[in-house]
Amino acid sequence: MRFWEKPIVRQYFHKGLLWRATEEQEVASYELFVDLLYVGIIAVSGDSAAEEATGQALLRFAITFIMGWKIWSDISLSISWFDSDDIVRRLSMLFWLACLLAYTTNIVEMGHDTYQPLIASYLAARLFSAVYYLWVALVLPMVRNVMISHAIMVIIPSAIWIASIYVEDPRRQALIWIAIVLDLFGVSAILIFQRDSALLPGKVRAWAKRTFDFYPGVNIEHKIERTGAFVTLVFGYSVVALL
What we know:
The protein is mainly α. It has helices at 29-52, 55-81, 87-105, 115-139, 144-165, 171-194, 202-211, 220-242, and strands at residues 8-9, 11-14, 17-20, 82-83, 214-216. It is globular, with a radius of gyration of 19 Å. Pfam families: LtrA.
C-alpha cells in the first residue's frame, strides 16, 4: 500500500449526465467500524435521554444525534466521492474516529460541564473535513470550485458553534439551532446552483453552470449496501441491549 496516491473522482455529474467508474465500489472494513462506533454514539445519547425522559433530555438527544450524524455523513461522503486506497486515508479515518470517541465521552454531561469539549471534538472533525476538501481542491482542479464551496459551508457554521460556547442557556439554543440548520442544509444551496435552478436569475445560472460544471456524485449501490450494514448493526445492538 502506498503512503499517498492522488485521489480519483469515482463518479460525477457533468452537463446533466452521471459519469461513473467501471469497477464496483465495495464497503471497506474500516467503514463498518465507523458505523459500529456511530451506533455506540446513538446508544450513549439515547441512554442519557432515557434516564430523565423530559423535554430537556429530548432536546439534548436531538442535538447530539444530529451532530454525530453530521460527522458520520462527512466520512461517508469523502469515501464515496473519491477513490484513494493509501495510508493517508487510513490515518484520516483514525483522526475522525478519535474525534468521534472524544465526542462520545462528552455527551452525557453536555448540559453541565462538558459542552465546551463536546463542541471542540465536533469542530475538530468538521474542520478536518474542510481541510480535506481544500486539499482535494488543490490536487483535483476538475472539482475545485465545488470542494471550496463545501469547505466554506463548514467554516461558516463553525464560527457560530464557537460563539455558542460563550453564551449561556437558554440563549445558547438559538445559536445551536442556527448552526445545525446551516450544517444540514447549507450544502443544498450549492446543489441549487449546480442543478441550474429556474428560480435563479439568468446571469447567476450562467455563472453557476460554469463554476459547478463538474460535481462529484454518490455511488447508489455503495450507499444502499452501507445503509443496509448500518441498519443491521443497529438491530444487532438493540437485541444485545434487550438481552
